[in-house]
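Title: Comparing notes on inverse folding

I've been comparing how different people in this forum approach sequence design from structure. To keep things fair, I'm posting one structure and asking everyone to reply with a full sequence. Here's the target:
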C-alpha cells in the first residue's frame, strides 16, 4: 500500500471556486494515482469569516465533481476530528511541545515562535527599537513544481494571538504533522509561507513533507489572478447551469497540467494514470470559459440518451419549473431533448432551443424573418405546402421528407425553397434540428395551424 497522504484544506470563508476545485482535484488525482489517501480538512479557525453555508457548498461541490475523500468530515478516519475548530486540545498539546523545547515566548499577550540564531536589534529613525532580526540560515525548499526555492526567515512570528486563537501557520503545520501528511499540494500563493512552515516542522522535530506549489489561475482577460468574484468562477454555478461534472473535472485538470500530448478530452482513468509532477506547468494557467463550454459540449454529445434526458429534465425542474415542457407527455419530452442533444452546447440552452415544441406561443426571430422573406415569394411557397399537407404521411422523418421532395418536384422547386419558410413559420427561427423531425414531432395539425397563422398575419 502507498504511504502517500495528501490533503485538501479549504477555509469555508467563501464560495467554492475554480481555484479551490483545481487544488482539491490535483490532490485527489495524486492520491488516486499513487493509491494513497486523500484527506479533507476544514481550516475553520476564523470564526468571523466562516459559515456553515460555505462549508456545505464545499461538501456538495466536491461530491458533485466526484472527488470523494478517504478521511475527513462526514466520513471520519483515524486522525480526526477533521475540522480545526474541534482540534483545540491538539493545538495546546503541540504548543506545549514547542514551549518545552524553548521555542516560544510571550509578548504583548501573544505567543511567539522563536527562531534560532544571533539577534540584532533594529531601530527606526527615532531610535526606537522596531524589530529584532535573527541571523538565520536560509530554508531550502525542493518544490516538486517550482524547483529549488530559498527563503530566510529572520523575524520571530506570532503563533497564538492575544485572544488565544492559533494562527494559520501553526495549525496548518500541526495538522499536517498530526495527520501524517506526506505531500502538501497547494496554490502558489502559499509558497511565501512555506519557509515559516519548514521552521515549525524542524522545531517540532517532524519530517518535512514534500511541497508542490501549483501555479495560479489567471482570469480570462488581463494578467490578474482569478478570484472568487470573477464571472464563471464558482463550481456551484456550473452545477446549476447543467454542466456535466466529468467535463468540468476534465477541463480543470488541464489548468496547469497536461498529458504531454495534444489530448484535451480524456477519460478520468487516463488522467489519473498520467497525473504526475513533471506534467504540471510552471507557468500560470488561464481560465477560458469558452473552452470549458466546448469541453462540456463534447461530453454532452456522447452522453447516453437516458443520462442526457435525465440531465435535461433535472435542469428544467431546477431552473424552469413552470416551463410548458414539464407538462408535456414524457415520451414527447424525451424525443425532443434527444433531437436537440447534438445541436446544443449546454443543457442551459434547451428551454429556448426547444420552446416551440411545447407551446404555440414561441417568439418570432426578426432577423430570420427578414432573411427568409427576402427570397422569392416565400408566402406562395408556404401556401403550396399547406395545400399539399393532407397528402403528407407524418409517420416517420423519411415519409415527411418524401412528401416535401415530391412537392418540390411537382412545382419545379428545390427542397430548400419549402424548408426555410416552413421552418420559420412553425419554429419562429431559421436554425434548429431537421425540419422533417420537427414536422413529425409536431404532427400535421400543429404544422398546418402554425403555417396558416403565419400566412394570416402576413396577408392582412
Ligand atoms: N486553508 C488554506 C487555504 O485555504 C490551506 C493552505 C494549505 O493548503 O496549506 O488556502
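Reply #1:
Here's my take.
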Amino acid at each position: 500500500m502507498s504511504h502517500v497522504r495528501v490533503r485538501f484544506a479549504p477555509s469555508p470563508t467563501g464560495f467554492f471556486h475554480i481555484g479551490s476545485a483545481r487544488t482539491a482535484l490535483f490532490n485527489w488525482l495524486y492520491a488516486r494515482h499513487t493509491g494513497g489517501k486523500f484527506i479533507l480538512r476544514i481550516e475553520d479557525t476564523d470564526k468571523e469569516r466562516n459559515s456553515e453555508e460555505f462549508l456545505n457548498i464545499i461538501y456538495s461541490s466536491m461530491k458533485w465533481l466526484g472527488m470523494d475523500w478517504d478521511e475527513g468530515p462526514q466520513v471520519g478516519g483515524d486522525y480526526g476530528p477533521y475540522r480545526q475548530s474541534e482540534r483545540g486540545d491538539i493545538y495546546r498539546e503541540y504548543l506545549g511541545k514547542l514551549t518545552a523545547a524553548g521555542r516560544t515566548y510571550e509578548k504583548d499577550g501573544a505567543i511567539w515562535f522563536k527562531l534560532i540564531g544571533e539577534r540584532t536589534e533594529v531601530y527606526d529613525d527615532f531610535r526606537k527599537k522596531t524589530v529584532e532580526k535573527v541571523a538565520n540560515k536560509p530554508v531550502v525548499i525542493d518544490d516538486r513544481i517550482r524547483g529549488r526555492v530559498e527563503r530566510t526567515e529572520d523575524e520571530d512570528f506570532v503563533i497564538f494571538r492575544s485572544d488565544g486563537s492559533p494562527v494559520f501557520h501553526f495549525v496548518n503545520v500541526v495538522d499536517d504533522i498530526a495527520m501524517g501528511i506526506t505531500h502538501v499540494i497547494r496554490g502558489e500563493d502559499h509558497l511565501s509561507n512555506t519557509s515559516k512552515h519548514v521552521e515549525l516542522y524542524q522545531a517540532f522535530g517532524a519530517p518535512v513533507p514534500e511541497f508542490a506549489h501549483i501555479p495560479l489561475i489567471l482570469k480570462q482577460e488581463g494578467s490578474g489572478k482569478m478570484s472568487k468574484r470573477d464571472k464563471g468562477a464558482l463550481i456551484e454555478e456550473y452545477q446549476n447551469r447543467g454542466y456535466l461534472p466529468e467535463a468540468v473535472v476534465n477541463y480543470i485538470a488541464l489548468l496547469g497540467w497536461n498529458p504531454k500530448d495534444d489530448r484535451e478530452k480524456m477519460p478520468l482513468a487516463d488522467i489519473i494514470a498520467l497525473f504526475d509532477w513533471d506534467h504540471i506547468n510552471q507557468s500560470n494557467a488561464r481560465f477560458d470559459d469558452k473552452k470549458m463550454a466546448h469541453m462540456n459540449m463534447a461530453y454532452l454529445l456522447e452522453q447516453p440518451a437516458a443520462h442526457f434526458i435525465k440531465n435535461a429534465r433535472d435542469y428544467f425542474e431546477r431552473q424552469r419549473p413552470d416551463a410548458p415542457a414539464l407538462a408535456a407527455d414524457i415520451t414527447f419530452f424525451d424525443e425532443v431533448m434527444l433531437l436537440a442533444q447534438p445541436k446544443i452546447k449546454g443543457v442551459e440552452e434547451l428551454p429556448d432551443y426547444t420552446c416551440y415544441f411545447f407551446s404555440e406561443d414561441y417568439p418570432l426571430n426578426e432577423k430570420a424573418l427578414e432573411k427568409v422573406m427576402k427570397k422569392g415569394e416565400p408566402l406562395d411557397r408556404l401556401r403550396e405546402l399547406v395545400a399539399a399537407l393532407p397528402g403528407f404521411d407524418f409517420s416517420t422523418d423519411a415519409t415527411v421528407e418524401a412528401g416535401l421532395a415530391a412537392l418540390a418536384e411537382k412545382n419545379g422547386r428545390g427542397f430548400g425553397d419549402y424548408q426555410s419558410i416552413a421552418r420559420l413559420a412553425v419554429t419562429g427561427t431559421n436554425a434548429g434540428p431537421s425540419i422533417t423531425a420537427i414536422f413529425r414531432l409536431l404532427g400535421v395539425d400543429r404544422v398546418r395551424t402554425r403555417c396558416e397563422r403565419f400566412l394570416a398575419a402576413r396577408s392582412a
